[in-house]
């Protein structure tokens, strides 16, 4: 869904004084091909929507940390997704909200929400990303700069 569908809705960059986590939000236009025979969003498309949100958040975190792309590489290790309300084509668009939930030594856990235009949560979930070394073809430790930005994003 990258490129044609995802358009940034903006970042809720308000990490307030009370330690609220950074929430990154991406607005995604729904397409006819995203729908199934029952007229609602196909279950596999939810995972594409989560990917849109993750990619936007990771891009922002890499920018903030000053990391190069080699040190900004992550692979998806786990996805957990719960469905709450149907998403239909007539909703037009959804917002994908992503927050950093946990920072490990070589992994991060993200919380996701798929929000309908009226603000209701259509789906919620968690993903685990593992920092990846593209040269060594294996996991790596988070850099100090990455950890600092991720811990700041926790709030």
Give a written overview of the molecule:
The chain is elongated. Helices cover 22% and strands 38% of the residues. It is of the alpha+beta class. The chain has one domain: Hotdog Thioesterase (Thiol Ester Dehydrase, Chain A, Roll). Strands 1, 2, 3, 4, 5, 6 and 7 form a seven-stranded antiparallel beta sheet that branches. The protein has helices spanning 43-65, 144-154, and strands at 6-12, 23-29, 74-83, 93-103, 107-115, 121-133, 138-139. A hairpin with a 4-residue loop joins strand 6 (121-133) and strand 7 (138-139). The chain contains two helices and seven strands.
CATH class: Alpha Beta
How much of the sequence lies in strands comes to 35-45%
Which H/E pattern describes the elements? EEHEEEEEH
Q: What is the terminal separation in angstroms? A: 29 Å
Count the beta strands: 7
> What is the count of DSSP helices, taking H or I runs of 4+ residues?
2
How would you name the CATH homologous superfamily?
Hotdog Thioesterase
Largest sheet properties: 7 strands, antiparallel
The coarse silhouette is elongated
CATH topology: Thiol Ester Dehydrase, Chain A
- How many distinct domains? 1
> Any low-confidence stretches, pLDDT <50, length ≥5?
1-19
Helix content: 10-25%
* Strand-pairing-aware structural class: alpha+beta
Instruction: Tell me what the CATH architecture is.
Output: Roll
Average pLDDT reading? 85
Rg is 16 Å
């Amino acid at each position: 869904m990258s490129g044609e569908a995802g358009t940034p809705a903006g970042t809720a960059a308000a990490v307030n004084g009370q330690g609220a986590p950074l929430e990154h939000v991406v607005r995604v236009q729904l397409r006819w091909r995203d729908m199934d025979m029952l007229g609602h969003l196909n279950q596999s498309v939810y995972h594409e929507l989560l990917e849109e949100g993750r990619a936007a958040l990771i891009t922002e975190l890499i920018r903030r940390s000053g990391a190069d792309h080699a040190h900004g590489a992550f692979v998806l290790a786990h996805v957990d997704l719960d469905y709450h309300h149907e998403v239909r084509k007539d909703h037009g668009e959804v917002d994908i909200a992503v927050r950093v939930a946990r920072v490990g030594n070589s992994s991060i856990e993200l919380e996701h929400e798929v929000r309908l235009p009226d603000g209701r949560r259509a789906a919620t979930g968690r993903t685990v990303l593992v920092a990846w070394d593209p040269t060594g073809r294996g996991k790596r430790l988070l850099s100090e700069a990455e950890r600092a930005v991720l811990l700041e994003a926790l709030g």
